[in-house]
Amino acid sequence: MDAFEPIIEEILKSDRQVHRKLRHTARRIFERLRDEHADVGGETIVKDAVRARKAHRRKGPHGSPRHASKINGRSRLTRS
Known about the structure:
Elements: H1 5-15, H2 26-36, H3 43-58, E1 66-71, E2 74-79
Antiparallel strand pairs: 1-2
C-alpha cells in the first residue's frame, strides 16, 4: 500500500481544485487504482488510507480539528 500513498495524495490534492460534488470518493479512488495499477489490495485498505489522509488534512495547526461556526452573521473558527 505504501507504493500507492503518493498517488492517493496526488488525487486528493487535485480534488481540492474542483467543486466538492465532483471530488473522488474512497471507492472511486480504489477503482481508479485497481484499473490503472495491478493488485492494489482490498477496498478497505484503500478506504482506510484515504480516511487517514483526509483526517490529517483537516487538522489545524495545533493538531486539533478545526470547526467553523457562525454567530450573528460573522464567521468564527473554533477548536474542539
